[in-house]
Design the sequence.
């Protein structure tokens, strides 16, 4: 019985020593935590990959760890993350916190941006114990990972639209459009010499008409008063006629010069009309030249009647 009692006492003492040792280590751990400065970070994004004990770094240097993660009770759109930072790490004004994600699913908090000479962040925050708050900043990779589902959805939608756009019917339509464009371009190129020749002839006809009009105006100054002193003069009428013809020809030149209508219409309608206009202008010019020469040769009176008959002089003979 005495031996068993001694063993019990030895066991109790050993347990007590173990409890004291555990308490000592807990006290050391608590003492170490007490030396770290608490800060709150309010993230308005997913904190997937973070957990209690996750490392906190400042510019890549270990600075502390996460001690609490919870939804902010005043606004569930925010996640409050409490971190404990080594007091040797200066959390200055301008420091921001971001979630550094990875494709493996493990994330950590990165602190950056402290301004040299700026004061420490000490303003009490709205969280428990009113610890100071470090502003957040969305990292590039973190934003990409957070928006990955939305990006995948948009990529899927884009792929579906591209599939519809490049369907067999659309590819056939696009091929026909290209073929028609090539045919139209070839036809227009083959018609270009004819268009150029017609414009050259029209320009030559207009030059001749202008020359004839100038000559007629010179001669018609005197004939105008003799022919119709009270009403509209013949010279003015002829001038108006030629001016209208000149305007019609100029408009026709503009129509011919516009190559936007279909090539078939250009060759079957516009060019024949241009040929007719050229012939009319040439006929008018010839008539005007004839009239001018007539006025120059016979005077204004030659336009009012036929040529004057010579006086009749009877010859000598026997009257019966």
Sequence:
């Amino acid at each position: 019985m005495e031996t068993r009692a001694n063993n019990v006492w030895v066991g109790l003492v050993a347990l007590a020593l173990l409890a004291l040792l555990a308490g000592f280590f807990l006290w050391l751990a608590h003492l170490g935590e007490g030396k770290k400065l608490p800060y709150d970070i309010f993230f308005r994004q997913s904190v997937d990959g973070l957990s209690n004990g996750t490392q906190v770094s400042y510019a890549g240097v270990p600075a502390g760890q996460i001690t609490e993660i919870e939804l902010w009770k005043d606004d569930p759109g925010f996640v409050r993350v409490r971190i404990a930072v080594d007091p040797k790490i200066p959390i200055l004004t301008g420091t921001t916190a971001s979630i550094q994600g990875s494709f493996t699913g493990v994330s950590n908090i990165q602190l950056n941006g402290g301004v040299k000479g700026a004061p420490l962040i000490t303003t009490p925050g709205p969280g428990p114990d009113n610890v100071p708050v470090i502003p957040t900043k969305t990292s590039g990779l973190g934003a990409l990972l957070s928006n990955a589902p939305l990006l995948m959805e948009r990529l899927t939608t884009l792929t579906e639209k591209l599939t519809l756009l490049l369907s067999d019917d659309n590819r056939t339509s696009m091929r026909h459009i290209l073929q028609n464009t090539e045919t139209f371009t070839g036809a227009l190129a083959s018609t270009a010499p004819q268009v150029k020749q017609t414009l050259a002839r029209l320009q030559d006809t207009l030059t001749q008409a202008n020359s004839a009009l100038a000559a007629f105006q010179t001669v018609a100054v005197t004939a105008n008063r003799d022919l119709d002193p009270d009403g509209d003069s013949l010279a003015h009428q002829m001038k108006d006629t030629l001016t209208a013809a000149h305007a019609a020809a100029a408009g026709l030149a503009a129509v011919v010069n516009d190559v936007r209508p279909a090539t078939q219409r250009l060759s079957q309608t516009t060019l024949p009309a241009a040929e007719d206009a050229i012939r009319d202008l040439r006929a008018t010019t010839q008539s005007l030249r004839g009239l001018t020469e007539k006025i120059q040769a016979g005077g204004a009176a030659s336009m009012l009647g036929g040529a004057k008959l010579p006086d009749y002089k009877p010859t000598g003979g026997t009257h019966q």
